[in-house]
Amino acid sequence: MNILLDLSFDGTRYCGFQVQKNGLSVCQALQDGLEQLLGTRPDVKGCSRTDAGVHAGHYALNFWADTRIPMEKFPLALNQKLPADIRVNWAKIVPDDFHARYAAHAKTYHYHIWNSQVDSPFNASYHHKLPGLLDVDAMNQAAQLLVGTFDFTSFCSAGCEVAMRGNTVRTITQCSVTADGPHVVISVTADGYLYNMVRILAGTLVQVGQHRIQPQDVIGILEQKNRGCAGPTLPAQGLFLARVDYPQDL
Amino acid sequence: MNILLDLSFDGTRYCGFQVQKNGLSVCQALQDGLEQLLGTRPDVKGCSRTDAGVHAGHYALNFWADTRIPMEKFPLALNQKLPADIRVNWAKIVPDDFHARYAAHAKTYHYHIWNSQVDSPFNASYHHKLPGLLDVDAMNQAAQLLVGTFDFTSFCSAGCEVAMRGNTVRTITQCSVTADGPHVVISVTADGYLYNMVRILAGTLVQVGQHRIQPQDVIGILEQKNRGCAGPTLPAQGLFLARVDYPQDL
Fold first, then answer.
1. How many whole angstroms separate alpha carbon A99 and alpha carbon A104?
2. Is B88 on the interface with A (CB under 8 A)?
3. B137: pLDDT confidence band, cut at 50, 70 and 90?
4. Contacts of residue A167, Cβ cutoff 8 Å, sequence gap at least 6
5. Which of the residues A10, A32, A43, A51 is marked catalytic?
6. Global pTM exceeds 0.80
7. What are the pLDDT digits (tens) for B227-238?
8. CB contacts, 8 Å: B124 with chain A
9. Which ranges carry the Pseudouridine synthase I TruA alpha/beta domain (chains A, B) (predicted)?
10. pLDDT (tens digit, 9 = 90+) per residue, A101-110?
11. Would the CB atoms of A55 and B122 count as touching at under 8 Å?
């Protein structure tokens, strides 16, 4: 049967979701757990690659396996075999042709910034620290201009395989910046992402918040199709995959 | 001059605020930083002892020192000398007779519970995990019954020096239980606390939330003046000192 899992993980000590030659991946840790539980090591299809150090509130993946464990008991059983920084929230049997990556029609990422002269002693691995006060309203104005279907080449790190093949058009359906005291969150929902896209978008919105560029400048940055025009790639630890959307009839 | 500091700290690796023979205290780490900054090691008056592993969103303390550093620059200067898990939020010159403990007329603590079958992979050192679903409404009913002036002997750990001296009456001005998804927070404001009082209150409210006792049973527990009647002392890591109140004219 084809099983869909919803995971949360703290990505701090992982090289990302995808199996890599150097470094422990979330996928590998999960496969180790599945192998202990099921006696076989299934191939796992993740909803996206995530960078080293990126976290997930909800990450979706699927795999094929035969098991008599009822799906409502599967999370508890598998969690006993997983490290504490990876947790399965729920499990579900899905149609045979379901693929966690190809079936996803939207993914939402949150980028967390601690915006205060004084660092927080808490959660150092869950946000990016920026002491200078950000203009959140200006960031939000810029965020609204990024909603739509655009060529996001300017927001894609060099070496991006997809860019080489020219598939650099994506649709952002929601982009917003909110502040709760010093805690600033950039939220983006899109049908897909280029390599480092959210971290570069966040770095560019931060430049708007620092008044180094104007909100409307993001339009020009998009039009340039040149990575050099956009802001810096912010560090991985502030980034969370917050949500993956699948068709409702799933 | 008499200087008041507002601190946040992650208490995980400390034996509490107070200097202890065995183990590193927050006070000691702070005094080390002050000594590096000022060249003298001031005596520090904390607003309360905190247990090992307890955190603080806002902890108040005062000390006497001569310094030319303006108070608005003092936090930045001192933070450079402190470990990253202790941060000074602000500094202020206060009247000569101010004492952080005696001047405080109320302190608010929050106890954080992660109430889900599935643990969170995040923030393991900032909450207590309880898998069985808690009845938050019942907990809240019980919490309301604890608002008032009572003898809290039943909510004081054995060996409490204050209890020996009979000063076991305290006034709780606010007590509530709220849930945001699996994140349950018990909030208590009182003029003072007995040893382990919040952790025992939280343990007793959890028993109400588990339907092991009824909300109105907390009245009987207070009347018994017997530690054995109340619930267990919950672990330190879920506890935060959230706020210390001083007279407004300060």
1. 8
2. yes
3. very high
4. none
5. A51
6. yes
7. 999 999 999 999
8. 84
9. 8-102, 142-247
10. 999 999 999 9
11. yes
Structure tokens of A186? 């950039």
Three-class SS of residue B37? helix
Tell me if B37 sits within 8 A of B76, measured CB to CB.
Answer: no
Q: Which residues lie below 8 Å from residue B128, measured CB to CB, with a gap of 6+?
A: B111, B112, B113, B114, B234, B235, B237, B238
Percent of chain B scored above 90 by pLDDT? 88
Written as six digits, the tokens of B102 are 């005696």
Long-range CB pairs of B188-193 (<8 Å, 24+ gap) are B188/B108, B188/B109, B188/B111, B188/B146, B189/B106, B189/B107, B189/B108, B189/B243, B190/B106, B190/B107, B191/B105, B191/B106, B192/B107, B193/B48, B193/B107, B193/B109
The one catalytic residue in B6, B10, B43, B51 is B51
Residue A90, beta-bridge partner list = A6
The interface predicted TM-score of the complex, written ipTM, equals 0.78
Contact B134, B113 (CB under 8 A): yes
Q: For residue range A132-186, list pLDDT tens digits in order.
A: 999 999 999 999 999 999 999 999 987 665 656 678 999 999 999 999 999 999 9
Element (H, E) at A169: strand A169-180
* Cβ neighbour number for residue A190 with a 10 Å cutoff: 23
Range B91-113 average pLDDT: 96
d(CA A127, CA A186) in angstroms, rounded, equals: 11
